[in-house]
Amino acid sequence: MNMKLSKESVLGLIALGIFVGMGLFTPGFFSSSNLNNMMFQLPEFGLIALGMMVVIVTGGIDLSITYIAAFSGVGAALMMTNGFGILPAIVVGILFALACGAFNGTVVSKIGVPPILVTLGTMVLFEGVILAITSGNAISGFPDAYGLIGNGYYMGIIPVSLLIFIFFIILTAVLLNKSTWGRRVYMYGSNDIATMFSGVKNSKVLMKVYLYASLLAAVSAIIMTSRYNSVKVDLGSSYLLQSVAAAVLGGTDIHGGYGKVMGTIYAVLIFQFIRNGLNLMDVHSSLVDVVIGAILIIVLTLNFFSDKFSRRKAESSSEKTA
Amino acid sequence: MSDYILEMEHISKTFPGVKALDNVELKVKRGEVHALIGENGAGKSTLIKVLAGIHDADAGGKYLFEGEEADIHQPLDATLKGISIIYQDLSLFPNLSVAENIYIGRDSNKKPWKKINWKSMKDLAEKAMNELDMDIDLNKKVELLSIAQQQMIEIARALAFDSKLIVMDEPTSSLSSGEVEKLYKVIDTLKERGISVIFISHKLKELFRVSDRLTVLRDGQYVGTYGVNEINEQELIKLMVGREVVYERNTEKADIGEKMFEVNNFSKEGNFKDINFSLHKGEILAITGLVGSGRTELAQSIFGVNKADQGTIRLNGEDLTISSAEDAVKNGIAYIPEARQVQGLVLGQSVVNNMTLPVIDTLRNKFKLIDHNIEKNLTNQYIKSLDVRPSMPDMPADKLSGGNQQKVVIGKWLSAQPKLLIIDEPTNGIDIGAKTEIHKLLRRMVNEGIGVIMISSELPEVLSVSDRILVMSRGRIEGEMNTIDADQEKIMNIALDTEGEKDVGNSEVSDGKSHQEV
Predict the structure, then answer these.
(1) Which residues cross the membrane (chain A) (predicted)?
(2) I want to staple A72 with a disulfide (CB 3.0 to 4.6 A). Which of A14, A97, B85, B278 is the partner?
């Protein structure tokens, strides 16, 4: 009976509109090489944005997420440059990330330090550790087979990395919407006192949130290192605040309790389309940031007013029934 | 010039769904100490909030200060007119000095780049402290002071603002007896200077000691104003407890079965001490007492969210160690908190999500994922049996009325199939129809074999719903009685009882009957 589109669907239509618009007005946007480019660029940022979104749903934030990715990439890289196989290297990379996530999760959930402070600290900490290990140099030269993860195709058309990304989109959606952990994540994000009073072990819920975010960061790191065939301390660091922006643009409530996987994905697509399209138009990269920043502010302002409006409407209607 | 500094008449305040004040009157003379009393929820705080400009009263009331239309719509207005309010949980700046705290707010109109005049600050603070005959280092940070000293700073601040009316909300609740005497002296000083004081307290002895006149509120309504010489404690209690709304008294003797739950030697520093009681099958046990008597703290300790220092609990013959809500739920103990919207419900989430929160792990299919059909069926079952309206499982909980929200919380815990349910102020903020429904539900649970402990400060509710009553005061259980032998005055006598007069309470009223009883 209610035909109103959800926030996410509106965003999806906007993404589609931008895609078509860019295609119409930007020569070369629809070219196969450009579409190909975008498919390869999408997963690494998308995975980090998803991880960030899950943390934000609990009302937190993970400022260390891209340094977890870099740390994880360094772990995998060191394994490979020291003669280990690809699989052990990936496992070690993931373990490095999970260790970082466990550290964040412990301090946030057991000690109760606000996530923004904890992850601000670990951001600097992880960066320092990476610098100590690499002396600031890049590690490069991985086996050719490793490069297939970030550069290869499945059946000749679909990038392997995109498939990995789609797998984690589905996994995240299933975990958040169908698992009891996901349910508790939303409930915790809405009201952690009430979940505590309902016998939910909040610390366990939070711990898994930070572990999951670090897992996604590790997967992103593997794709990035594979694509660039090298890793440095700033691997993916430009995605840090962009991922927060994508999660929030995707409708995730910065106070926690609400956030949908598809919303974040649409936001990631919007960023990708705009960035790519403006690049093709030879717009200077700093101007691209201005455009993206402006869009973010406009959308969030509109969101704020539409929420306020609908709340007022709900209040007046509930008063009538009371 | 009028005799009265403050004249409030026909003051009403309506919140969505609740009439918190209904045609209330409060008139305070110059230089008098005026006590404002009433049970929890009688409307004292709301009235003070109207006085302070935090709430605007409904149209049609009269609010005169010094004989003129008060025109107070925000706290600053009140301060500037000379009304100071000293709240129970003081409002000082802990990291600022004594002098700064006394001075703060004076420069509100000064341009921000103008320098602070430290000398005049010090002079002002010193003058106020001298008037109160206080000797506290003006440079000391306020957080280093005792509660009593901090209170004096608040009073000094009121003086520095040339306040003509000072409201003190339960000022003695955290003071030692020596400090209380000192406060009385300060109040006498204020009186001599022609300053009026509104004094809010639950301690009747104290009210008779300090005040000249008192105004009684009950259920948001004005009962009357009396000189302290015209009335005695017993009459006052009667005025406080008589209620418009009466439930049918529980006159049946409960069919009591075996002992199912026991609390032994339960203590927690600053909360409650030496608590011993038991609950039998087939009875509803009420724990009553004033706010701050330790009832809620006790319940939350049993539930594991406010860990007790010592003591043991036994449920169905089994000793339990409970150190978290998780343990409690696992062992079949459920707690429905008074703060429904904060602790009881996740307001922004749907009815389904709330109802199945404690049991969600048991609603999984073979892939370990939530089975949404089972979940919905379970929710619908409780929506139906508890008559939650509207019966929409996907509706966010904050869109429901108070009564229906409470039903969702009850449903949530029924789904967990508890052995023991502790329910804290079950009908707080709920309309009368839903109240009786919830009372019936509690009885139904007991009949189904669930142990029910009800915490309530609403005495008619206690007398109507429970079979046995424990009365708490100052963290101890000070009285126990069967509901059929109890009445409001007996309970109030124990609940209000103050230090050094413990044995008076029970014997003083032998056959006192509440005048509102049916």
Answers:
(1) 12-33, 45-70, 76-99, 111-133, 153-176, 209-228, 286-305
(2) A97
In a domain, A168, yes or no: yes
Q: So what's the pLDDT on residue B105?
A: 75
Q: What angle do CA B244, B246, B252 make, to 5 degrees?
A: 165
Q: At the top level of CATH, which class does the domain B4-241 belong to?
A: alpha beta
ipTM, 2 decimals? 0.87
Residue A149: domain span: 28-274
Touching check for A186 and chain B: CB below 8 Å? yes
The domain spans of chain B are: 4-241, 258-498
pLDDT tens string A190-231 = 999 999 999 999 999 999 999 999 999 999 999 999 999 999
- Alpha-carbon distance of B102 to B118, in angstroms, equals 12
Q: What is the pLDDT of residue B506?
A: 34
β-bridge partners, B195: none
Are residues B353 and A258, on separate chains, in Cβ contact within 8 Å? no
Position B35 pLDDT exceeds 90: yes
Percent of chain B with pLDDT over 70: 92
What does the alpha-carbon distance between residue B423 and residue B411 come to, in Å, rounded to a whole number? 13
DSSP letter string, A193-252: HHHHHTT--HHHHHHHHHHHHHHHHHHHHHHHHHHHTEE-TTTTTTHHHHHHHHHHHTT-
Using a CB–CB cutoff of 8 Å, tell me whether A294 touches chain B: no
Residue A92 banded pLDDT, cuts 50, 70, 90: very high
Tell me how many domains chain A contains. Answer: 1
Query: Which residue(s) pair with B479 in the sheet?
Result: B471
Q: Please answer yes or no on whether B349 and A187 come within 8 Å at the CB atom.
A: yes
Q: What mean pLDDT value characterizes chain A? A: 91
Q: For strand B333-336 and strand B420-424, is the pairing parallel, antiparallel, or unpaired?
A: parallel
Contacts of A55 (CB under 8 A, 6+ apart): A61, A62, A65, A115, A209, A210, A213
Cα–Cα distance measured from residue A152 to residue B344, given in angstroms and rounded to the nearest whole number: 52
CATH number attached to the domain at B258-498: 3.40.50.300
A322 contacts chain B (CB < 8 A)? yes
Give CA–CA dist A174/B503, Å, rounded: 64
> Does residue A160 fall inside a structural domain?
yes
Nearest to A72 by CA among A207, A227, A236: A236
The residue in chain B having the minimum alpha-carbon distance to the alpha carbon of residue A318 is B399
Identify the top-confidence range among A153-157, A178-182, B168-172: A178-182
Helices (H) and strands (E) in chain A, counts: 13, 4
DSSP letter (8 states) at residue B167: E
What mean pLDDT is predicted for residues B167-195? 86
- Tokens describing residue A282: 């030879």
DSSP B144: G
- Give B291 or B516, the one with higher predicted confidence: B291
Best of A6, A109, A180 to mutate (most B CBs within 10 Å, chain B): A180
C-alpha B462/C-alpha B426 separation (Å) is: 11
Residue B118 binned pLDDT confidence (cut-offs 50, 70, 90): confident
- Which CATH number does the domain housing residue A112 bear? 1.10.3470.10
Instruction: For the beta carbon of residue A175, count every other beta carbon within 10 angstroms.
Output: 18
Q: Does pLDDT of A267 surpass 60?
A: yes
> Beta strand pairing status for B221-227 and B213-218?
antiparallel
For residue B303, give how far its alpha carbon lies from the nearest alpha carbon of chain A (Å).
9
Instruction: Tell me the average pLDDT across B198-213.
Output: 88
- At CB < 8 A and 24+ separation, what contacts does A27-31 make? A27/A280, A28/A280, A29/A276, A29/A277, A29/A280
State pLDDT tens for residues B48-88: 999 999 888 888 889 999 888 888 888 888 988 899 998 87
For residue A151, give every residue at least 6 positions away whose Cβ sits within 8 Å of its Cβ, in sequence order, or none. A40, A159, A226, A227
Q: Which two tokens stand for residue A137?
A: 């140099």
pTM greater than 0.90 (yes/no): no
Q: Give CA angle at B286 (B88, B512), nearest 5°.
A: 85
